[in-house]
Amino acid sequence: MSKPKTTATPTPREALHALLTELKFKGMARVLDSELDRAERNGTSCAEVVQRLLSEQASFQRERSLVNRVAQAHLPWQWTIDTFPFDRQSGVNKAQILGLADLEFVRRADNLVLIGGTGTGKTGIALGLLRQACINGWRGRFYSAQALLDELYASLADRSTTKLLTALARMQPLCIDELVT
Questions:
Q1: Is residue 92, in this structure, part of any structural domain at all?
Q2: What sign for the dihedral angle of Cα 125, 131, 132, 137?
Q3: 31, 53, 135, 174: which has the highest count of C-beta atoms within 10 A?
């Protein structure tokens, strides 16, 4: 006679890990054991443990959201306003650019046009401002003018122009580089 199969009842920790995995709460899952161990050692209240776990999850989601916004922006270089070489760009007014970094022009939905010769830092400033916007929760996108025109032209062929224009309209800021007059 064969023995009937019995399934072991999962421990509360195992059940919590299973639920966190099911809910895709990776931030909470990564600190669950350490938080529960700390609570057992220190006699921490359940409310405090839950608060710390939820705080970790919120932090994890903010980090992932930032990573996704920066990736979707298609920044070709890792420029930031802080790393811009103001000392090598004598024609760039540092105070004015740092003033733009407050992103008020994005909030007002104003256009910003950077004009200057080759090598004057227009792209670096634009990338720094776009990255700053991503860090502050905005969803922006970087395009070279040619790449944008190519994408628009391709959208005509597959009849997705309306979808592309709708997506572009949601981007704040939309940075278009290499416009030639």
A1: yes
A2: positive
A3: 53
